[in-house]
Amino acid sequence: QVQLVESGGGLVQPGGSLRLSCAASLRAFRLHSMAWFRQAPGNERVFVASITERGGSTTYADSVKGRFAISRDNAKNTVYLQMNSLKPEDTAVYYCVVPASGYWGQGTQVTVSS
Q: Can you say whether residue 18 is alpha, beta or left, with left for phi > 0 and alpha for psi between -120 and 50 degrees?
């Protein structure tokens, strides 16, 4: 059974940074592109960032370009989301996703507030 376990969320002040991790118990992790989505209170889940199988290509939502960076370590079956210059509007539950397979993690809460 596939498990995606996110960690690294928490409370941070505006302008601060957080690094999210997603540990995947996914066979052949290196063969799957990975993504992060987020869901703010009262809103739908929206795309944040994605990375190809070997990490050679990344894509970002316009709202996070230049502030967030997605990366992966295929030896550790882990994908990361480095979030810098955080804003209150980044407050959301962040989900790790295997787009091609439809697997979602349980999510980790990120709250940006002073």
A: beta
Which pLDDT belongs to residue 71? 98
Q: Residue 23: how many CA atoms within 13 Å on its side-chain side?
A: 4
DSSP at 46: E
* Three-state secondary structure call for residue 88: helix
Give the CA angle between residues 57, 37, 2 to the nearest 5°: 85
Which residues, 6 or more positions from 3, have their beta carbon under 8 angstroms from its beta carbon? 24, 25, 105
pLDDT along the chain (114 residues), means of 10: 94 98 93 97 96 96 98 97 98 97 96 97
